[in-house]
UniProtKB/TrEMBL annotation, chain A:
The keyword Membrane applies. Keywords: Membrane, Transmembrane, Transmembrane helix. It comes from the Bacteria. This is DUF1648 domain-containing protein. Residues 147-186 form the DUF1648 domain. It comes from Lysinibacillus telephonicus. Coiled coil: none annotated. The chain crosses the membrane at residues 6-24, 51-69, 81-102, 138-157, 188-207, 233-253, 265-287, 341-362. Residues 322-347 form the DUF5808 domain. GO terms for biological process: response to toxic substance. It holds the Pfam family DUF1648. InterPro entries: DUF1648, DUF5808.
From TrEMBL, chain B:
InterPro entries: Tscrpt_reg_HTH_GntR, WH-like_DNA-bd_sf, WH_DNA-bd_sf. It comes from Lysinibacillus telephonicus. SMART domains: HTH_GNTR. Residues 11-79 form the HTH gntR-type domain. PANTHER family: GNTR-FAMILY TRANSCRIPTIONAL REGULATOR, HTH-TYPE TRANSCRIPTIONAL REPRESSOR YTRA. Keywords: DNA-binding, Transcription, Transcription regulation. The keyword DNA-binding applies. One of its GO terms (molecular function) is DNA binding. It holds the Pfam family GntR. It comes from the Bacteria. This is GntR family transcriptional regulator.
Length: 363, 125
């Protein structure tokens, strides 16, 4: 059973890592700003192709080796899990290494050919773009939050019914395998964690909404498409994940109060189902946003480019720009968001809830 | 309306913002009564410091082009009859430019037709 889970996740990681160069923003190649005039350069295209082939081939060999290893002998579940985790990290490590290799090559190519020297760097925005933003409103998060508070109240009302040992951890089969002494705090611990997590997602949602809608001067329409779909679909996807987690945790909480409603089948299937829909959701999100800006427009002004932001991107991956009030910005290698490390609010939104979650779990 | 900032220009960014917004109103791209984006959103979308946008909004307010209403943002003011004081300010700002054009070799007729062309791009009030 667990081999299938690991294979699916690993194949998923390998696939995403392979196609990333074709899903990122058109004017960013391996974390390097390339003016729109040169994005179709044959060397650039060759780099992308070579990266993808290398990652796909190496991942294929690793996954193939894993399958052969797992099926030639009887392996313990733990061995399969440990090996599975190792190969997942190996694939990530390999693709990151290739990324850095081609990041360096692209940077060299750009400076050797003096691609930015003769172009005027501009910044551009549309005063009406905000009115086209289709992110969900923040108050939609009140729905899962209220559900969680409902679970909390329900637990407190039914405190008598709770067993003396409260489950705190569930094994892969959905059976609880770690317990704690029953106290008023431990009885609502799970719902408290859920609430903090929901508040974190709400914080991320609001911060994302306040972050910039970055348009490109050389591709106004395609950059608008991409930014608006990134915002819209990431807000849908985040809410979807929150709702699914709420259902999952809510179900666990209810089975603790009423053990007779727990079915072994549901307990085992739910986490797998959760994993499957999150993976599918990620895939749809990545492809949908990744393909939203690939239609090439006619350049109206050949002499301009978007501001070269390479100096704000450390290693092409970490954004550090004091002048940008955005808390989150679009990733340079991948589909999604990354934090503006120069803005302390970003750390607060992500770190404080994580610390609270850790504190609640070890209390 | 598209705002495009030249990052290498000698003209400060806040002045470029001010000028483009005024031109946008004159062309009819933004109408009186409509509001400009919030300082935070504008600065984030453009990737500039909030102070820059703030400075431009205050300059626009001082000129009487927009009105900053607390809580609801910056609204484009209706086009009113110009008062004498403002007229004097515009004349004194325009004069050096016209003089410079003459001194650098532009003919009077050329300047007149240039002014006509520029005004032609703007909307009649």
């Amino acid at each position: 059973m667990s081999i299938i889970v690991f294979l699916v996740i690993t194949l998923f990681i390998a696939f995403i890592q392979t196609v990333i160069p074709y899903l990122v923003k058109r004017t960013v190649v391996f974390g390097v700003t390339i003016p729109d005039q040169y994005t179709q350069n044959p060397t650039i295209k060759a780099y992308k192709k070579r990266y993808s082939i290398s990652v796909a081939l190496l991942s294929g060999i690793i996954i193939g080796g894993y399958i052969i290893w797992a099926f030639t002998n009887e392996r313990l579940e733990e061995q399969v899990a440990i090996a599975g985790t190792i190969i997942e990290f190996a694939i990530i490590f390999i693709s990151v290494s290739w990324y850095f290799y081609y990041h360096g090559k692209t940077k060299q190519l750009k400076s050797k050919n003096k691609w930015v020297e003769n172009l005027k760097q501009v910044k551009v925005t549309d005063l009406s773009v905000r009115s086209q933003d289709e992110m969900l409103p923040w108050y939609i998060y009140l729905m899962p939050i209220l559900i969680t508070i409902g679970f909390m109240l329900y637990t407190i009302i039914n405190y008598e019914l709770l067993p003396d040992q409260i489950p705190t951890h569930w094994g892969p089969s959905g059976e609880p395998d770690a317990f704690t002494e029953k106290t008023p705090f431990s009885s609502i611990q799970l719902t408290l964690l859920l609430l903090v997590m929901q508040l974190m997602f709400l914080g991320i949602h609001i911060a994302t909404k306040n972050s910039g809608i970055k348009l490109s001067a050389t591709g106004l329409q395609s950059s608008r498409n991409r930014q608006l779909s990134l915002r819209k679909y990431s807000s849908w996807f985040m809410l979807f994940v929150v709702l699914v987690i709420t259902m999952l945790m809510g179900y666990f909480q209810l089975t603790t109060i009423h053990p007779n409603i727990a079915s072994d089948y549901a307990m085992a299937a739910l986490p797998l189902f959760f994993l499957a829909i999150v993976l599918i959701g990620t895939l749809i999100f990545g492809l949908k946003v990744g393909r939203s800006d690939k239609e090439i427009e006619i350049l109206e002004d050949e002499k301009i480019m978007d501001i070269d932001e390479d100096k704000y991107w450390k290693g092409g991956m970490f954004y550090f720009n004091k002048n940008d009030p955005s808390i989150f910005v679009e990733k340079r290698f991948g589909v999604g968001w990354t934090i503006n490390f120069a803005n302390p609010i970003g750390y607060i939104i992500v770190l404080v809830p994580l610390i609270i979650i850790i504190v609640i779990s070890i209390l | 309306m598209i705002i495009q900032i030249d990052t290498e220009s000698d003209i400060p960014i806040y002045t470029q913002l001010t000028n483009q917004i005024i031109e946008g109103i004159a062309r009819g791209d933004i109408q009186p009564g409509h509001s400009l984006p919030s300082v935070r959103a504008f600065a984030a979308d453009l990737g500039v410091n909030m102070h820059t946008v703030n400075k431009s909004y205050h300059e626009l307010e001082k000129k009487g082009v927009i009105k900053i209403v607390p809580k609801s943002g910056a609204m484009i003011s209706p086009i009113d009859n110009i008062n004498n004081e403002t007229k004097q300010r515009i004349i004194s700002e325009l004069k050096p430019h016209l003089a410079e054009a003459l001194v650098l070799g532009m003919g009077k007729e050329e300047i007149k037709s240039l002014i006509n062309t520029i005004i032609g791009e703007m909307k009649e009030r």
